[in-house]
Write a structure and sequence with these properties.
With 133 residues, the protein is an alpha+beta fold. It has five helices and six strands, in the order βαββαβαββαα. The model has no long low-confidence stretch (mean pLDDT 89). Helix content is 37%, strand content 20%. This is CBS domain-containing protein. It holds the Pfam family CBS.
Length: 133
């Protein structure tokens, strides 16, 4: 798990979030409220498909209108198998991790599974996430 992942607020501009993605070399940024509780996620795909392809200007658009909410997430005590199962079920490549109060504390990416001992789970996730729905 990546601890202390980059995050944004629902009021941030999509252009600013895209810059954050570039700096951090990530494709998803968790969206948190003022109490640091997870409220959604914004992906590079959300920005391209929901904003740019629709003809909207990322420098004037805010995250709230384009993010995926609520985000699927797991608690920090979840196992790698729990993470892999949720990734496969929801066909997502990343799972935000929250503490007991719902505050963002980490994120697990599909690449994290590949680096772990959960390689059997990796195949299931890769197949499900990469298959058309």
């Amino acid at each position: 798990m990546t601890t202390n992942p980059r995050y944004c607020s629902a009021r941030d501009s999509l252009q600013g979030v895209a810059r954050l993605m570039l700096e951090a070399d990530v494709g998803e940024i968790p969206v948190v409220d003022e109490r640091h509780q997870l409220v959604g996620v914004i992906t590079d795909r959300d920005i391209v498909v929901r904003c740019v392809a629709a003809g909207d200007a990322p420098d004037t658009c805010v995250v709230d209108a384009y993010m995926t909410a609520p985000a699927v997430s797991l608690g920090k005590d979840a196992s790698l198998e729990d993470v892999a199962n949720l990734m496969a079920k929801e066909a997502v490549r990343r799972i935000p991790i929250t503490d007991e109060a719902g505050r963002l504390c980490g994120i697990v990416a599909q690449a994290d599974l590949e680096r772990s001992k959960a390689r059997s789970q990796k195949a299931k996730v890769s197949h499900r996430v990469s298959s058309p729905h």
